[in-house]
Write a structure and sequence with these properties.
By secondary structure, the protein is of the alpha/beta class. Helix content is 34%, strand content 14%. It is built from 11 helices and 12 strands. It has helices at residues 14-23, 37-44, 60-66, 85-90, 103-118, 121-129, 158-169, 195-201, 221-226, 244-252, 292-310; strands spanning 5-8, 25-28, 49-52, 72-75, 95-96, 150-154, 173-177, 190-192, 204-207, 232-235, 258-261, 281-283. It is globular, with a radius of gyration of 21 Å. The chain binds glyoxylic acid. Residues 54, 77-79, 102, 289 line the site of glyoxylic acid (GLV).
């Protein structure tokens, strides 16, 4: 019997590829850059399964171009705003994602950004490379502290809660805003507040919400104007949750202390982005989940979703279980 045909849109860790090779006839996109729209449409034609990354926009056109035999779309990410899930559900195509396995790596990274910004670590490096380190200075590169500070989490799902767990060790006060989580969480010593209170009271605001029409530019100039002057904004969710022009203005005028972004709008961030001219920002190239262990687990999980889907079995992690009703 011939194996199901699948298209995998990039080289992923071997732990996932070996599973796919065993049970599928795999077309693997090996270039460093993602396939163009035309290349994507061409390669999905006739496949039973698609394993894609957040760099691919998977809409009804892609699904129709693949054909009615398409049985699964497996995203190698926990976020799935790159996929038109409604279009997939209408076509009875299950969509898989990779929750849980990247929670700790992402929360670690958000903390790393918080500390890098508030203790000005990249600025310190640039200071040395620029030959400015002449002596130990009592006033050199002063920043903020975590101990005793208030951490405001926007989004209190898996990663938000992992942030709260870490914050206990730093003796921080934790508040959160999440329309789906309105009860206090005594185990994590965290309390729900409304959006405005969170902005007004937090020394660190960390974003852990998915990108939806409701969260698009949630952090705009009005939201930034409510934040404390010592506040640090951290985004490890999706770039468009923050309005980049509003953030640039707030940082340039030092209305907040700084920002750490692992995600930007757009991605990749163009080299002429005004954000790159600022000292009080740390920007990384969407690598919060990029530990070797986590990326291997993501690949394995995405492969399992793909294989279950092409076999017509329920996906281990399905974002639109309505397709099975
Ligand atoms: C990465 O951003 C993910 O959603 O997994």
């Amino acid at each position: 019997m011939s194996k199901p045909k699948v298209f995998v849109t990039r080289l992923i860790p071997e732990k996932g590829l070996e599973l796919i090779r065993d049970s599928c006839d795999m077309d693997l996109w090996q270039a460093e850059l993602p396939p163009s729209r035309e290349e994507l449409l061409q390669h999905v034609r006739g496949v039973d399964g698609l394993l894609c990354l957040l760099t691919e926009q998977i809409d009804g056109e892609v699904m129709d171009e693949a054909g009615p035999q398409l049985k699964v779309i497996s995203n190698h990410a926990v976020g799935f705003d790159n996929i038109d899930v409604m279009a997939a559900t209408t076509r009875k195509i299950p969509v898989g994602n990779t929750p849980e396995v990247l929670t700790d790596a992402t929360a670690d990274f958000a903390f790393a950004l918080m500390m890098a910004v508030t203790r000005r670590i990249p600025e310190g490096e640039r200071y040395i490379h620029a030959g400015k380190w002449k002596t130990w200075g009592p006033l050199t590169l002063l920043g903020g502290e975590l101990t005793g500070a208030t951490l405001g989490l926007i989004g209190f799902g898996r990663i938000g809660k992992a942030m709260a767990r870490r914050a206990v060790g730093f003796e921080m006060r934790v508040i959160y805003y999440d329309p789906n989580e309105t009860k206090p969480n005594p185990d994590l010593k965290a309390s729900p507040v409304d959006f405005e209170t969170l902005l007004e009271e937090s020394d660190y605001v960390s974003l852990h919400a998915p990108l939806t029409p409701d969260t698009h530019h949630l952090i705009d100039s009005e939201a930034l104007s409510k934040m404390k002057s010592n506040a640090v904004l951290v985004n490890t969710s999706r770039g468009p949750v923050v309005d980049p022009e509003a953030l640039y203005e707030a940082l340039k005028e030092k209305r907040i202390f700084g920002a750490g972004l692992d995600v930007t709008e757009p991605e990749p961030l163009p080299l002429d982005s005004p954000l790159l001219t600022l000292d009080n920002i740390v920007i990384t190239p969407h690598i919060a989940s990029a530990s070797k262990e986590t990326r291997a687990r993501m690949a394995w999980m995405a492969a399992r979703n793909l294989i279950a889907g092409v076999k017509g079995e329920p996906l281990p992690n399905c974002v639109n279980p309505q397709v099975y009703k």
